[in-house]
Write a structure and sequence with these properties.
This protein is 48% helix and 11% strand. The longest helix is centred in the N-terminal third of the chain and has 26 residues. It holds the Pfam family Cellulose_synt.
Length: 229
Protein backbone atom coordinates (compact mmCIF):
# COMPACT_ATOMS: atom_id res chain seq x y z
CA UNK A 1 0.00 0.00 0.00
CA UNK A 2 2.78 2.42 0.87
CA UNK A 3 4.45 1.71 -2.49
CA UNK A 4 1.17 2.35 -4.35
CA UNK A 5 0.70 5.66 -2.53
CA UNK A 6 4.30 6.62 -3.26
CA UNK A 7 3.89 5.91 -6.97
CA UNK A 8 0.58 7.79 -7.09
CA UNK A 9 2.10 10.81 -5.29
CA UNK A 10 5.04 10.76 -7.71
CA UNK A 11 2.70 10.68 -10.72
CA UNK A 12 0.63 13.53 -9.29
CA UNK A 13 3.80 15.53 -8.74
CA UNK A 14 4.96 14.99 -12.32
CA UNK A 15 1.53 15.95 -13.68
CA UNK A 16 1.56 19.12 -11.55
CA UNK A 17 4.99 20.18 -12.82
CA UNK A 18 4.00 19.44 -16.43
CA UNK A 19 0.87 21.56 -15.97
CA UNK A 20 2.97 24.43 -14.62
CA UNK A 21 5.37 24.16 -17.56
CA UNK A 22 2.46 24.23 -20.04
CA UNK A 23 0.98 27.28 -18.31
CA UNK A 24 4.33 29.08 -18.47
CA UNK A 25 4.71 28.22 -22.16
CA UNK A 26 1.20 29.50 -22.83
CA UNK A 27 2.01 32.74 -21.02
CA UNK A 28 5.08 33.34 -23.19
CA UNK A 29 3.70 31.78 -26.38
CA UNK A 30 4.14 35.03 -28.32
CA UNK A 31 7.87 34.96 -27.45
CA UNK A 32 8.50 31.40 -28.67
CA UNK A 33 10.88 31.23 -31.67
CA UNK A 34 9.97 30.03 -35.13
CA UNK A 35 10.88 26.40 -35.77
CA UNK A 36 11.88 24.90 -39.14
CA UNK A 37 11.73 21.11 -39.48
CA UNK A 38 13.54 19.39 -42.36
CA UNK A 39 12.50 15.95 -43.62
CA UNK A 40 14.58 14.23 -46.30
CA UNK A 41 13.56 11.43 -48.67
CA UNK A 42 15.30 10.11 -51.75
CA UNK A 43 13.48 7.19 -53.37
CA UNK A 44 9.72 6.50 -53.38
CA UNK A 45 10.34 2.77 -53.81
CA UNK A 46 12.55 2.51 -50.72
CA UNK A 47 10.77 5.22 -48.72
CA UNK A 48 7.08 4.89 -49.70
CA UNK A 49 5.27 8.24 -50.02
CA UNK A 50 2.59 7.13 -47.54
CA UNK A 51 5.24 6.49 -44.89
CA UNK A 52 6.85 9.86 -45.59
CA UNK A 53 3.65 11.85 -45.24
CA UNK A 54 2.77 10.09 -41.99
CA UNK A 55 6.02 11.52 -40.66
CA UNK A 56 5.10 14.94 -42.05
CA UNK A 57 1.63 14.89 -40.46
CA UNK A 58 3.04 13.93 -37.06
CA UNK A 59 5.41 16.91 -37.25
CA UNK A 60 2.67 19.31 -38.34
CA UNK A 61 0.64 18.20 -35.30
CA UNK A 62 3.35 19.20 -32.80
CA UNK A 63 2.03 20.95 -29.70
CA UNK A 64 3.57 24.25 -30.79
CA UNK A 65 2.08 27.47 -32.21
CA UNK A 66 1.27 26.56 -35.82
CA UNK A 67 2.06 30.02 -37.13
CA UNK A 68 5.65 29.56 -35.88
CA UNK A 69 6.10 26.08 -37.35
CA UNK A 70 7.39 25.30 -40.86
CA UNK A 71 7.87 21.81 -42.29
CA UNK A 72 10.06 21.27 -45.37
CA UNK A 73 10.15 18.04 -47.36
CA UNK A 74 13.32 17.59 -49.38
CA UNK A 75 12.64 15.03 -52.11
CA UNK A 76 16.04 14.13 -53.52
CA UNK A 77 14.36 11.67 -55.86
CA UNK A 78 12.36 14.45 -57.50
CA UNK A 79 9.32 12.17 -57.58
CA UNK A 80 5.92 13.43 -58.65
CA UNK A 81 4.47 10.61 -56.52
CA UNK A 82 6.02 12.08 -53.38
CA UNK A 83 4.78 15.55 -54.30
CA UNK A 84 1.27 14.16 -54.82
CA UNK A 85 1.36 12.42 -51.44
CA UNK A 86 2.39 15.68 -49.76
CA UNK A 87 -0.43 17.51 -51.53
CA UNK A 88 -2.91 14.93 -50.21
CA UNK A 89 -1.41 15.34 -46.73
CA UNK A 90 -1.89 19.12 -46.91
CA UNK A 91 -5.64 18.55 -47.42
CA UNK A 92 -5.89 15.92 -44.69
CA UNK A 93 -3.97 18.09 -42.20
CA UNK A 94 -6.92 20.51 -42.08
CA UNK A 95 -8.87 17.77 -40.32
CA UNK A 96 -6.05 15.89 -38.57
CA UNK A 97 -4.59 18.81 -36.59
CA UNK A 98 -7.92 19.81 -34.97
CA UNK A 99 -8.52 16.15 -34.11
CA UNK A 100 -5.12 15.92 -32.42
CA UNK A 101 -5.76 19.09 -30.42
CA UNK A 102 -9.26 18.07 -29.34
CA UNK A 103 -8.32 14.61 -28.06
CA UNK A 104 -4.62 15.25 -27.28
CA UNK A 105 -3.73 12.03 -29.04
CA UNK A 106 -0.42 10.20 -29.06
CA UNK A 107 1.24 9.10 -31.28
CA UNK A 108 0.43 11.79 -33.84
CA UNK A 109 1.42 9.81 -36.90
CA UNK A 110 -1.99 8.78 -38.28
CA UNK A 111 -0.86 5.27 -39.27
CA UNK A 112 0.64 4.63 -35.84
CA UNK A 113 -2.38 6.09 -34.06
CA UNK A 114 -4.94 4.04 -35.97
CA UNK A 115 -2.97 0.85 -35.41
CA UNK A 116 -3.03 1.24 -31.61
CA UNK A 117 -6.52 2.61 -31.00
CA UNK A 118 -8.86 0.84 -28.55
CA UNK A 119 -12.24 -0.63 -29.50
CA UNK A 120 -14.16 1.90 -27.39
CA UNK A 121 -12.61 4.88 -29.18
CA UNK A 122 -12.97 3.24 -32.61
CA UNK A 123 -16.77 3.42 -32.31
CA UNK A 124 -16.95 7.18 -31.73
CA UNK A 125 -18.32 9.46 -34.46
CA UNK A 126 -15.22 11.64 -34.51
CA UNK A 127 -12.93 8.65 -34.89
CA UNK A 128 -14.96 7.11 -37.71
CA UNK A 129 -14.99 10.44 -39.54
CA UNK A 130 -11.21 11.05 -39.35
CA UNK A 131 -10.48 7.39 -40.13
CA UNK A 132 -12.64 7.59 -43.27
CA UNK A 133 -10.70 10.65 -44.45
CA UNK A 134 -7.39 8.91 -43.79
CA UNK A 135 -8.49 5.76 -45.63
CA UNK A 136 -9.47 7.85 -48.66
CA UNK A 137 -6.10 9.61 -48.65
CA UNK A 138 -4.27 6.30 -48.22
CA UNK A 139 -6.18 4.76 -51.14
CA UNK A 140 -5.41 7.72 -53.42
CA UNK A 141 -1.69 7.64 -52.60
CA UNK A 142 -1.34 3.86 -52.79
CA UNK A 143 -3.21 3.72 -56.10
CA UNK A 144 -0.97 6.36 -57.66
CA UNK A 145 2.13 4.64 -56.28
CA UNK A 146 1.14 1.28 -57.77
CA UNK A 147 0.34 2.88 -61.14
CA UNK A 148 3.61 4.82 -61.05
CA UNK A 149 1.88 7.95 -62.28
CA UNK A 150 -0.67 10.60 -61.33
CA UNK A 151 -4.12 10.40 -62.97
CA UNK A 152 -4.70 13.20 -65.49
CA UNK A 153 -7.77 14.48 -63.66
CA UNK A 154 -5.64 14.94 -60.53
CA UNK A 155 -2.79 16.70 -62.35
CA UNK A 156 -5.15 19.48 -63.44
CA UNK A 157 -6.05 20.28 -59.82
CA UNK A 158 -2.70 21.84 -58.88
CA UNK A 159 -0.27 23.88 -60.97
CA UNK A 160 2.69 22.24 -59.23
CA UNK A 161 2.33 19.10 -61.35
CA UNK A 162 3.39 21.08 -64.42
CA UNK A 163 6.94 21.17 -63.01
CA UNK A 164 7.32 17.52 -64.01
CA UNK A 165 6.48 18.24 -67.66
CA UNK A 166 10.14 19.20 -68.17
CA UNK A 167 11.73 16.59 -65.87
CA UNK A 168 13.72 14.08 -67.91
CA UNK A 169 14.96 11.93 -65.00
CA UNK A 170 15.53 12.02 -61.21
CA UNK A 171 19.16 12.93 -61.95
CA UNK A 172 18.46 15.64 -64.50
CA UNK A 173 15.89 18.29 -63.59
CA UNK A 174 15.40 21.88 -62.54
CA UNK A 175 14.82 23.09 -58.98
CA UNK A 176 11.24 22.46 -57.87
CA UNK A 177 9.82 24.46 -54.97
CA UNK A 178 6.13 24.35 -54.11
CA UNK A 179 4.57 26.04 -51.07
CA UNK A 180 1.55 23.85 -50.36
CA UNK A 181 0.54 25.71 -47.21
CA UNK A 182 1.70 29.29 -46.67
CA UNK A 183 1.65 29.94 -42.95
CA UNK A 184 1.45 33.72 -43.41
CA UNK A 185 -1.64 33.43 -45.61
CA UNK A 186 -4.66 34.42 -43.47
CA UNK A 187 -6.72 31.86 -45.40
CA UNK A 188 -4.42 28.94 -44.51
CA UNK A 189 -6.72 27.59 -41.81
CA UNK A 190 -7.86 24.20 -40.58
CA UNK A 191 -11.52 23.19 -40.22
CA UNK A 192 -11.74 24.96 -36.86
CA UNK A 193 -10.35 28.24 -38.18
CA UNK A 194 -6.90 27.83 -36.62
CA UNK A 195 -3.69 28.63 -38.50
CA UNK A 196 -1.87 25.79 -40.25
CA UNK A 197 1.92 25.33 -40.26
CA UNK A 198 3.83 26.23 -43.40
CA UNK A 199 4.36 23.19 -45.63
CA UNK A 200 6.94 23.24 -48.44
CA UNK A 201 8.05 20.71 -51.07
CA UNK A 202 11.60 21.03 -52.42
CA UNK A 203 13.54 19.04 -54.97
CA UNK A 204 16.90 20.68 -55.68
CA UNK A 205 18.35 20.98 -59.16
CA UNK A 206 20.33 17.99 -60.44
CA UNK A 207 22.46 17.68 -63.58
CA UNK A 208 24.43 14.62 -64.78
CA UNK A 209 27.70 16.55 -65.07
CA UNK A 210 27.60 17.87 -61.47
CA UNK A 211 28.13 15.77 -58.36
CA UNK A 212 25.07 16.17 -56.13
CA UNK A 213 26.60 14.95 -52.82
CA UNK A 214 23.54 12.84 -52.01
CA UNK A 215 21.46 13.85 -48.94
CA UNK A 216 24.19 16.18 -47.68
CA UNK A 217 23.71 18.25 -50.80
CA UNK A 218 19.94 18.13 -50.30
CA UNK A 219 20.33 19.42 -46.75
CA UNK A 220 22.50 22.29 -47.98
CA UNK A 221 19.76 23.21 -50.42
CA UNK A 222 17.20 23.22 -47.61
CA UNK A 223 19.33 25.49 -45.45
CA UNK A 224 19.85 27.84 -48.39
CA UNK A 225 16.10 27.95 -49.01
CA UNK A 226 15.41 28.68 -45.35
CA UNK A 227 17.79 31.66 -45.22
CA UNK A 228 16.49 32.97 -48.53
CA UNK A 229 12.88 32.89 -47.25
Amino acid sequence: MKLEHSIKDSQNGIQFHLLMIIKKLSRYEHKLPGVDIFVCTADPTIEPPLMVINTILSLMAYDYPSEKLSVYLSDDGGSVLTFYALLEASYFSKHWLPYCRKFNIEPRSPAAYFSTISNSVSKSTEFLSIKKLYDEMELNIETATKLGRIPNEVRTQHKGFSEWDSVSSPRDHQTIVQILIDGIDPNALDTEGCALPTLVYLSREKRPNYHHNFKAGAMNALVTLEYAA
